[in-house]
Amino acid sequence: MKDPREVIIRPVITEHSYDMMESNVYTFEVAKTANKIEIAQAVEAIFNVKVVKVNTLNVKPKPKRVRVQPGYTRTWKKAMVTLQEGDSIELFSA
Q1: For residue 51, what are the β-bridge partners?
Q2: Within the chain, which residues score under 70 in pLDDT?
Q3: What's the CA gap between 3 and 89, in Å, rounded?
Q4: How confident is the model over 68-86, as pLDDT tens digits?
Q5: Residue 30 and residue 8 in contact, taking contact as beta carbons nearer than 8 Å
Q6: Which residues pair with 91 in a beta bridge?
């Protein structure tokens, strides 16, 4: 098994992710090579919670430019993790 801290890169903090927390769904940026089983095991190991379901998606790059130089944002993988009823992650509690 991979190190859990290599699988989970950072939490994704947006208005939509905060709205999803009411239904016990937390959003993370994860390693591009991680699969759903590795993501679930990493979240359970780091935050000491029970994962019910993991949904993943690859975020595509968007065109951006800096002054005259065109380019794209980076690609990354997002995981929405549903926790067991009654569990929560303290990192997101504000």
Answers
A1: 83
A2: 1, 92-94
A3: 19
A4: 999 999 999 999 999 999 9
A5: yes
A6: none
Nearest to 44 by CA among 94, 1, 78: 1
Task: For the beta carbon of residue 52, count every other beta carbon within 10 angstroms.
Answer: 14
Q: Rounded to whole angstroms, what are the CA distances from 84 to 5, 18, 55?
A: 21, 17, 15
pLDDT of residue 59: 97
Residues 6 or more apart in contact with residue 37 via CB below 8 angstroms: none
* Amino acid identity at 68: V
3-state secondary structure of 21: helix
Which residue has tokens 């859990």?
4
Stated pTM of the model: 0.90
